[in-house]
């Protein structure tokens, strides 16, 4: 798929998005080559370097359950990682202002990995001065059970690249207790989350009964894993606990704690940052229409009950999506 194909898909859909979907199916108005396998309806295309797309209503698809009607999914494709980072910073700052005004706090959940570098523009003007960092409460969607100064620590990565550069109060940064076993650290983290819900720092989803974080900033591995929920691992199906653990992660280090899918899926907003050709296969499986519901990757199981999931991608990551 060339960029021009993406751009023309976006151009086609810009006019489509003005059509009332109740009167006319957007998909039926897409030019024939795009129609058959175009699950995403572009919202706008303000420049050749960006395409903003939203799934057609049918994308809420057979695999979604009742109650997910309020969920929204967007796909943004950037020419350059620099543009992605700028857009991610802008979106995060907007959400920070919105939730701080609405709730008095902004609960932000970080992953490790490549996501962290994409946050760098938040540490620069205008965001460094404009964001009310005193409202931020920071959590990890997954963490490796290693010392905080270990090269594999997601805390260390975030601290070095992001948290040390912005004035979030230290008491509002919730690292795991790495002195405990994986099981103990998961239990301890869940206990602390429950207390923060009682204290009114973290909201609760009235729909799911799980905590509702304002924004999860997450990456995805080349195998389609999110957090430390790996394909085929039984913890992917955990539906009671808020936080669980693995001791046999296929990606080192083996011992980790992770939010469970019900918690991830109760978020108000998720920004899923996925770049590079190495992730194109998982992106294709997750976003193409040819979905096999019996063999879902963890990323395919990310489906917000009542919130907005936005994929921040680049051309390489979506290069196997023939529908664009
Ligand atoms: O192990 C992990 O991997 C994923 C993906 O990392 P990436 O470098 O491929 O983006 C990350 O989201 C997760 O937090 C981390 O523990």
From TrEMBL:
Domain of life according to the entry: Eukaryota
E.C. designation(s): 3.1.1.31
InterPro entries per UniProt: 6-phosphogluconolactonase_DevB, 6PGL, Glc/Gal-6P_isomerase, NagB/RpiA_transferase-like
Keywords noted in UniProt: Hydrolase
GO CC terms: cytoplasm
Pathway noted in the entry: Carbohydrate degradation; pentose phosphate pathway; D-ribulose 5-phosphate from D-glucose 6-phosphate (oxidative stage): step 2/3
Gene3D superfamilies: 3.40.50.1360
Cross-referenced CDD domains: 6PGL
GO molecular function, one term: 6-phosphogluconolactonase activity
Pfam family, one: Glucosamine_iso
Xref: SUPFAM superfamilies: NagB/RpiA/CoA transferase-like
UniProt catalytic activity: 6-phospho-D-glucono-1,5-lactone + H2O = 6-phospho-D-gluconate + H(+)
Domain annotation Glucosamine/galactosamine-6-phosphate isomerase: ranges: 81-311
Transcription regulation keyword on record: no
Biological process according to GO: carbohydrate metabolic process; pentose-phosphate shunt
Function text: Hydrolysis of 6-phosphogluconolactone to 6-phosphogluconate.
Family listed: Belongs to the glucosamine/galactosamine-6-phosphate isomerase family. 6-phosphogluconolactonase subfamily.
Protein name: Probable 6-phosphogluconolactonase
């Amino acid at each position: 798929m060339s960029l021009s194909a993406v751009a023309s898909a976006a151009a086609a859909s810009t006019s489509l998005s003005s059509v009332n979907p109740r009167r006319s199916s957007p998909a039926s108005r897409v030019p024939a080559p795009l129609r058959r396998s175009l699950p995403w309806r572009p919202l706008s295309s303000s420049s050749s370097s960006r395409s903003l797309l939203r799934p057609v209503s049918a994308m809420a698809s057979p695999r979604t359950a009742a109650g997910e009607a309020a969920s929204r999914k967007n796909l943004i494709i950037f020419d350059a990682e620099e543009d992605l980072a700028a857009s991610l910073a802008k979106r995060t700052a907007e959400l920070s202002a919105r939730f701080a005004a609405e709730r008095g706090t902004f609960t932000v959940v970080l992953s490790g990995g490549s996501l962290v570098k994409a946050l760098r523009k938040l540490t620069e003007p205008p965001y460094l001065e404009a964001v009310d960092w005193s409202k931020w409460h920071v959590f990890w969607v997954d963490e490796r059970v290693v010392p905080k100064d270990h090269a594999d620590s997601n805390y260390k990565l975030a601290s070095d690249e992001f948290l040390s550069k912005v004035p979030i109060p230290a008491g509002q940064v919730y690292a795991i207790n790495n002195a405990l076993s994986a099981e103990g650290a998961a239990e301890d983290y869940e206990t602390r989350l429950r207390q923060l819900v009682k204290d009114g720092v973290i909201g609760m989803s009235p729909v799911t009964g799980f905590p509702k974080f304002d924004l999860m900033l997450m990456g995805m591995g080349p195998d389609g894993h999110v957090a430390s929920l790996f394909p085929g691992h039984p913890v992917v199906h955990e539906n009671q606990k808020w936080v669980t653990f693995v001791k046999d992660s296929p990606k080192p280090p083996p011992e980790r704690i992770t939010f469970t899918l019900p918690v991830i899926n109760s978020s108000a907003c998720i920004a899923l940052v996925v770049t590079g050709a190495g992730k194109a296969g998982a992106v294709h499986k997750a976003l193409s229409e040819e979905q096999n519901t019996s063999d879902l990757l963890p990323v395919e199981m990310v489906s917000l009950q009542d919130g907005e999931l936005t994929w921040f991608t680049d051309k390489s990551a979506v290069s196997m999506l023939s529908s664009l």
